[in-house]
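User: Please predict the structure of the protein below. I'd like the answer in structure-token form so I can feed it into my own downstream comparison script.

Assistant: Understood. Taking the following sequence of 423 residues as input:
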Amino acid sequence: MDISVVVLLVGLLIFGSFFFNRIFSSLRVPSALFFIIVGVIIGFYVDPNLYFGDIGGAFAALTLNVIIYHVGKRFNFKNIKTVPTRALPFTLLNVFFTIIFIAGAARFIGKMDWTASLFLAFILSGTSSVIILPIAQSLKLKDKSRKTLAYESVFTDVICIVGGLIFFEYIMHGGNATVGVSGQVAESILFGLLSGVIAGVLWVLVLISMKQVTHTMFASLAFILIIFGASTLIGFNGGFAVLAFGIMAGNIDHNLFKKWFATGMTDKAKEYSSNENHFLEEVILLIQTYFFVYMGMMLEYYSTLVFLIALVLMVILVLLRWVSVRAFASKGIDYKERIIMSVLLPKGIIPAVMATFAFEMGINEGVKIMQFAYAIIIISLFVSSVLIAIARKDPEYFGRVKDKMLSHSKSDKDVDNNPPEEN
């Protein structure tokens, strides 16, 4: 393909990532679906293997670190106090259901080993805040509903990252869960977390020394790459180091850290962190566009069976999510909002990036992980979009379907209990 055409396509995608996100959020449809379709079309003309080129693994690692850092920064200790009482059990129950069914499907239908199955299940166990929050805002949900969905996405982002990194560490150790390997994994994680905290202390000192330096937004991105690379080379878990650094950066004004640093130091770090958040959001937006287009381009790796499995899984998870909504949704949430909360479970950028990273690293089950992850992400986006549209127009539709199914079941039972008399 001519270089000018490539440059034109890149420009259109970057521009479209800002333009279409606003349009599709107002339509209550994830813009990710649009970019996946664009990727499918581009895939007919561009070889997906050229999309990443020879630096695919490095780019996937860079992107993963940006995502981990962003997730860590959003996990603010002060906001935990404002979490609705039932949001945590609601979140944990949904995560439990998702892990059980996706891991089971990957193991017994996809024939993947348990380590790869659990890695896949954990990275897909959450909901995408990047997709959910704009849609919840445009749907004008009540404060309790929006807060529950928002905190669910924040908590599950951390669960996806932590669980995914743990089981990826096991995969890199050959997938063995022996006592010796578990000890090595635990040691790698603990020292990774410690190195992230130490890096956070150094970063505050670096910010103080950069008082007279302007245009430093890329400095933190460079620093997290240094943290990841250095920690990994030493033998620590670089992902956990970046996560710990991100959590510390996002909570620099917390009393815990104010005891460590002078007020002037934390004020400088807090000011920098606030400005950086807007920059990170735009970077994440571009990354999301890139990966969803890539998902569409990888059509040759998909199979009908995988999509059917993904569809069945999503139907089961929607039904189970309704159970958790009924059990733990706060009082004062009406029927329509309960329905919307039940069907709003799109998967997003975190599983896409982590599955791509596993594929690019060339692990044994990398292709299957990518196939299942991409299929479940696409189906979740499609199912959520369709069901939200139905819930908005006719929320009683689901109740009528349930009543109809129960009436059919009852009539069939009556026929079984009272068979027709023979002549």
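That's the full token string. The mean pLDDT is 82.
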